[in-house]
Amino acid sequence: VRNFHKLSGGIAVGPLMATLMRHGELWNQDRTRTSIPNGPHAAADDVILRFGKPSLDDLGPFENRASMALLEAKNMVLGVMQLVGGSELGRVMITRLLPGAKIGVHADEGKYAERFTRHQIALESFPGNVFICGGEEFCPQTGDLYWFNHQLEHVVINNSISDRYAMIIDCRID
Q: Can you say whether the dihedral through the CA atoms of 31, 37, 39, 45 is positive or negative?
């Protein structure tokens, strides 16, 4: 497997998920990624924790949103940064994909995608969730942290019986 790399497993995601479930108002406050007609993320819901300008070439500054503190996600994010040797934190988002839905085929492009590597923590992932990147399939389990090559075409399909939740953490690694 060249386009995915599992970095860690068994991350304690329960406290963050419990807080997220209590704050349904956080979903889709910012529809930057999900409101593009026929865009790849149209079927997903987002909670934006840290973002800059909605541009393929945006290199910052990135702002922590109130949701970062409310969900107490900062320590989890900084733990990923430390584990991967990150020198700069980019965008951070939580995505939800309903059963039967998919994130369409796309590749991340532009200066931003060249500068930052993409990592995900599976906050909730059941059998039937399939992540395909560069022709390879990966089925993350709840609590898995993994890197994937976001500059290649990728798609996520939720064929499970439950919602799929993932935290995206973009880091620059020098």
A: positive
Given a cut of 90, whether residue 113 has pLDDT beyond it is yes
Residue 23, both tokens: 């704050």
Model pTM score: 0.96
What SS3 class is residue 119?
strand
CA separation for the pair 87, 81 (Å, rounded):
8
CB contact set of 46 (below 8 Å; sequence gap of 6+): 27, 28, 30, 31, 32, 33, 34, 93, 94, 95, 96
Q: Is 72 exposed, middle or buried (0-12, 13-18, 19+ CB in 10 A)?
A: exposed
The least confident of 8-12, 50-54, 93-97, 105-109 is: 50-54
For 24, which DSSP code? G
CA atoms within 13 A on the CB side of 119: 27
Contact of 69 with 16, CB cutoff 8 Å: no
Compute the distance between CA of residue 131 and CA of residue 53 in angstroms, rounded to an integer.
27
Tell me the pLDDT tens digit for each residue of 96-109.
999 999 999 999 99
